[in-house]
Amino acid sequence: MDYILFLRLSLDQKIFNREEIEQLEYVNKDRLAELISSENPSNEKYEFSPWFLLIARNFLLKGESWSKIESIDQITDKKIYKL
């Protein structure tokens, strides 16, 4: 994988390919934390790529990233992170 792209879209915008995505669910920060928790028995219903889990746990759910999602340009730091 070379790039990972995060987008902000309105809920009525559909830009995904149904042949590539089996299930789609919009979640808030607390729900995402619950879904990716290894202690959550319901997470067996969901599959996340290892890359997504690394990004979610190290960036999305830490610090101010989620609260600044409305102004994503404010959290751009132009760093390359080694995970």
Based on the model shown, name its key terms.
83 residues; 2 helices; mainly alpha; isopentenyl-diphosphate delta-isomerase activity
Overview of this protein structure:
With 83 residues, this protein is an all-alpha fold. The chain is globular, with a radius of gyration of 14 Å.
Using the CA coordinates, give the radius of gyration.
14 Å
The counted number of beta strands is 0
The pLDDT mean sits at 74
Shape field: globular
N to C succession of SSEs: HH
SS content category: mainly alpha
Largest sheet: none
Portion in strands: under 5%
DSSP helix fraction:
10-25%
Give the distance, in angstroms, between the N- and C-terminal Cα atoms: 13 Å
Low-pLDDT stretches are none
How many helix segments? 2
GO cellular component, one term: cytoplasm
Protein name: Nudix hydrolase domain-containing protein
GO molecular function: isopentenyl-diphosphate delta-isomerase activity
Task: Offer a quick outline of the entry.
The protein is an all-alpha fold and 83 residues long. The protein has helices spanning 29-36, 50-60.
